[in-house]
Amino acid sequence: MWKIKMLWFQGNSMQLAKHSFQLLLRNLSAPKTALPVLTLFTKDPCPLCDEAKEVLEPYKNRFILQEVDITLPENSAWYDRYKFDIPVFHLNGQFLMMHRVDISKLEKQLQKLEQQGAGG
């Protein structure tokens, strides 16, 4: 009986070691820096928000777009703050721009973050 338990334990240890090694390899091959998060404060309907998303389309591989519907009860603080200003954008939690996409401002901030991520 001890032999069976020991083999079972060794088998699980091998599985765990194999899984850990696969995770390690995956992490080594993953990008060194996470993409910045561009948060869009929006509501439905919001034609200016739709227009802004179209303008952002060519840049979508450089950030993760997170949309926050300010009309949801859990976002009431954002509603109070931005109800007359959407679309509003934050980059990594910091205010970036409102009303329309300012490509030069976005580009400048993305480059700054990318340089920081590259150790620059």
Automatic annotation (TrEMBL):
Keyword Translocase: no
UniProt xrefs under Pfam families: Glrx-like
UniProt-listed InterPro entries: Glutaredoxin-like, Glutaredoxin-like_YDR286C, Thioredoxin-like_sf
Keywords: Electron transport, Transport
Source species, domain of life: Eukaryota
Family: Belongs to the glutaredoxin family.
Protein name: Glutaredoxin-like protein
Gene from which the chain derives: C8H5orf63
